[in-house]
């Protein structure tokens, strides 16, 4: 019965694993609703800020903010990579990091240098293994990200852009579509593009074809644009992190449910094998008893 004992131990082990994955599924489901509410409540503000920023890019002003001016040549780019701090969420991080890897190879093939900001432990580990130049990081953001934790690393990238050390800033993130679907995306954040695909999947255009935009600035264009455009960038980063957390909780709930279901299937298969092994052992013992009685 040594084989039967090993099978029983395997069944107990898989049952323990199923309890863990079931608990993680329930925790992720509880956090998912709150994460989705935070993500959806901040979307309108970010989209409106995006529209204003894109209109400003087309406005005729006496002051052209660095965030609105495209560089003649691009020699160095910056990239902000948004990932999760923890794993066990399916292919969520793998998909966005595959996008980062693909874009990194294209940049290097063009001879461009790349500076990275990592938001999330998984992205930080990947960039370290890649040997990338990481200028700032923010990890252990938790389930409720705080803007003050994000402003510091992002400011490093913005200052390098304003100083002319980098010519473009790109962002890589995962956007939430629904509970079963999350999409990895990337886009140019600076300079303000003519078109931008929002986290909700909408494509916003600058409306330049309808005529030039213009604004009356009070107190002055420089002071106002500096404040508004920095707030736009901070809000955009905050929204990307919220999108990523909502995607993480949804992906983890789905992954843990699949793991729980698979554990149940394995337990049933092991139970069937155990019953067959036990039945074979009993049959063998009966045959030995009958054979011994016949010999007597």
Tally of helical segments: 5
Helical content class: 55-70%
Low-pLDDT residue intervals, each spanning 5 or more residues = 203-211
Give the strand tally. 7
Radius of gyration using CA atoms only: 28 Å
Q: What is the terminal-to-terminal distance?
A: 27 Å
**Main sheet characteristics:** 5 strands, mixed
Written as H for each helix and E for each strand, in order along the chain, the element string is HEHEHEHEEEEH
**What structural category characterises the helix and strand content?**
alpha/beta
Portion in beta strands: 15-25%
Q: Return the average pLDDT rounded to an integer.
A: 81
Strand order of the largest sheet: 3-2-1-4-5
Sum up the overall morphology in one term: elongated
Task: Please characterize this protein's 3D structure.
The chain has 296 residues and is of the alpha/beta class. Helix content is 59%, strand content 16%. It has five helices and seven strands, in the order H-E-H-E-H-E-H-E-E-E-E-H. It has helices at 2-58, 92-109, 121-130, 147-162, 221-295, and strands at 76-82, 113-119, 133-138, 168-178, 181-190, 195-197, 203-205. The strands form two sheets. It has a five-stranded mixed beta sheet, sandwiched between helices. It has a two-stranded antiparallel ribbon with strand order 6-7. Helix 1 packs antiparallel against helix 5 and helix 4 crosses helix 5. Mean pLDDT is 81; it is low at 203-211.
């Amino acid at each position: 019965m040594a084989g039967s004992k090993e099978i029983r131990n395997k069944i107990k082990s898989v049952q323990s694993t199923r309890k863990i994955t079931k608990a993680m599924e329930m925790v992720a489901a509880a956090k998912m609703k709150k994460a989705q509410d935070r993500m959806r409540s901040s979307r309108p503000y970010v989209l409106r800020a995006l529209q204003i920023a894109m209109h400003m890019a087309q406005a005729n002003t006496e002051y052209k903010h660095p965030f609105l001016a495209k560089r003649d040549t691009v020699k160095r780019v910056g990239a902000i990579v948004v990932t999760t701090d923890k794993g066990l969420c399916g292919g969520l991080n793998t998909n966005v990091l595959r996008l980062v890897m693909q874009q990194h190879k294209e940049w290097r093939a063009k001879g461009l240098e790349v500076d990275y900001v990592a938001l999330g432990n998984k992205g930080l580990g990947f960039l370290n293994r890649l040997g990338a130049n990481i200028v700032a990081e923010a990890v252990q953001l938790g389930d409720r990200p705080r803007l003050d934790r994000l402003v510091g690393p992002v400011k490093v990238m913005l200052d390098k852009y304003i100083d002319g050390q980098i010519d473009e800033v790109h962002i890589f993130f995962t956007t939430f579509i629904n509970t079963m679907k999350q999409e990895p995306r990337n886009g140019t954040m600076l300079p303000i593009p003519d078109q931008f695909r929002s986290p909700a999947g909408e494509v916003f255009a600058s409306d330049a074809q309808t005529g030039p935009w213009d604004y009356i600035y009070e107190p002055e264009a420089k002071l106002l644009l500096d404040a508004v455009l920095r707030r736009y960038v901070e809000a955009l980063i905050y929204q990307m992190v919220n999108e990523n957390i909502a995607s993480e909780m949804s992906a983890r709930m789905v992954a843990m449910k699949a793991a729980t279901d698979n554990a149940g299937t394995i337990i049933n298969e092991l139970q069937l094998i155990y019953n067959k092994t036990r039945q074979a052992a009993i049959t063998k013992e009966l045959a030995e008893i009958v054979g011994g009685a016949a010999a007597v």
